[in-house]
Design a protein that fits this description.
Layout lengths: L1 E9 L3 E8 L2 E6 L2 H14 L5 E12 L2 E14 L4 H18 L5 H4 L2 E2 L2 H5 L11 E2 L3 E5 L6 E4 L14 E2 L6 E2 L4 E4 L1 E6 L4 E6 L3 H5 L3 H11 L7
Parallel strand pairs: 3-5, 6-7
Antiparallel strand pairs: 1-2, 1-4, 2-3, 4-5, 8-13, 9-12, 10-11, 13-14
């Protein structure tokens, strides 16, 4: 399942789309009727980032990049009505939204790399935010069964959905009829010698691959068999 990001036509015979698949760029070449028929449709739909499904194709290395070559028996389906295509499009929109927000910011790009142990020796009295990076391995998701909470739409403060639906923020004080789920993922990480607990909020959406509401829905439908779980 691939999502088109660009199309180049060579010699009016071949249409060469560049795709994004799980963040990895790939190139596919269409020949014959696929180039003239499906290729024309793709060119017209390119600004909408169509998703295509391919079968019976050949994978090779072309100019150092992974390349997909379609053959006479190859099949190509544009915007197939299947869950996998919807998930790919949702992933793409999440990536585009992150870029629009300027993430990662310059502060994070310029952050110095440290070790987990360095955090423990850093003064906690400073009121200035400190930006740093460290490389670790996720070993455990501590609240795997319920990594979310319900929040007020207006201020994002936690709302106890089962007990009280009143938002206590003065600015948005009132009854919350439909609180929205947000991620609160608690993970345990380690780097071989040290370990630490890390709490992820909205950033967990990138890690898991869907919004909290969809995560909850899929978990209820398929229990622990949900791919996001």
């Amino acid at each position: 399942m691939l999502l088109i990001s660009n199309i180049i036509r060579e010699k009016n015979i071949n249409v060469l789309p560049f795709f994004i698949c799980s963040g990895m760029p790939m190139r596919a070449t269409l020949f014959g009727d696929l180039a003239t028929n499906e290729g024309s449709i793709l060119e017209a739909e390119i600004k909408y980032r169509p998703v295509i499904g391919l079968s019976y194709f050949k994978i090779s290395i072309y100019q150092g990049d992974t390349s997909i070559s379609l053959q006479i028996i190859s099949l190509l389906c544009i915007n197939p009505k299947i869950e996998l295509a919807s998930e790919l499009r949702e992933w793409f929109h999440l990536e585009e939204a992150a870029k629009a927000k300027g993430s990662p910011s310059t502060l994070f790009k310029n952050a110095k790399e440290i070790h987990i142990s360095d955090i423990m020796h850093t003064s906690q009295n400073s009121i200035q935010p400190q930006y740093c990076t460290f490389k670790v391995k996720i070993t455990t998701i501590l609240n795997r069964l319920e990594p979310w909470f319900y929040a007020c739409k207006g201020c994002d403060k936690k709302v106890d959905k089962d007990v009280c639906k009143e938002c206590l923020n003065d600015k948005y004080r009132g009854i919350i009829d439909d609180p929205v789920p947000r991620y609160l993922v608690k993970i345990l990480v380690e780097n071989g010698t040290d370990n630490a607990r890390v709490t992820l909020f909205d950033a967990a959406e990138t890690l898991i691959g869907c919004k909290a509401e969809k995560f909850i829905t899929k978990k209820k439908e398929k229990n622990n068999q949900s791919p996001y779980f």
